[in-house]
Amino acid sequence: MSKKLPMVLAVAVLMVGTASVGAKTTASSSTTTQSHTSSKHEPLQRIRAALEQLDLTPQQKEKFKSIFTQTRSELKAAKAQSHAKGEVHQIIEKARQQIMAVLDNEQKAKLKEILRNEKGGKSQTA
Fold first, then answer.
1. What pLDDT, on the 0 to 100 scale, is given for residue 52?
2. Where do runs of H (alpha helix) occur along the chain?
3. Which of 5, 104, 107, 122 is at a distance of 20 to 30 A from 59, taking alpha carbons?
4. d(CA 46, CA 62)
5. pTM, whole model, 2 decimals?
6. Which tens digit of pLDDT belongs to each residue from 8-35?
7. Cα–Cα distance measured from residue 74 to residue 88, given in angstroms and rounded to the nearest whole number
8. Is 57 helix (H, G, I), strand (E, B) or coil?
9. 28-66: per-residue pLDDT in tens?
10. Residue 71 near residue 14 (C-beta atoms within 8 A)
11. Closest CA to 41 of 18, 16, 22
């Protein structure tokens, strides 16, 4: 039940962060992001909107940039392996924990609320 939400959150946050960082630097990064996330485009938009509502500090934004860059490198290496599904899950979980550690309690609660509302979270209870 609530185990699925953090995983979806982690994947989406990572991809949005990667897309956001890449969009600010070069257009080629967005091309790479699109090829990896074509079926996940809609969740990325929801997470991007949710993150914009969190009023992140400059320090948090910088920390997320670092997390996203590191995670993108790790995921790229893991995806190059044919048996990397478990490793990808571990990388995403590690990044999720790092991301949640950066947010304060109010931001965590607000993000969860936004995601539940966007997803029609009446069927999912935390």
1. 75
2. 4-25, 27-37, 41-52, 58-79, 85-102, 105-119
3. 5
4. 21
5. 0.58
6. 555 555 555 544 444 443 333 344 444 4
7. 8
8. coil
9. 334 444 444 333 334 445 666 677 788 889 999 899 788
10. yes
11. 16
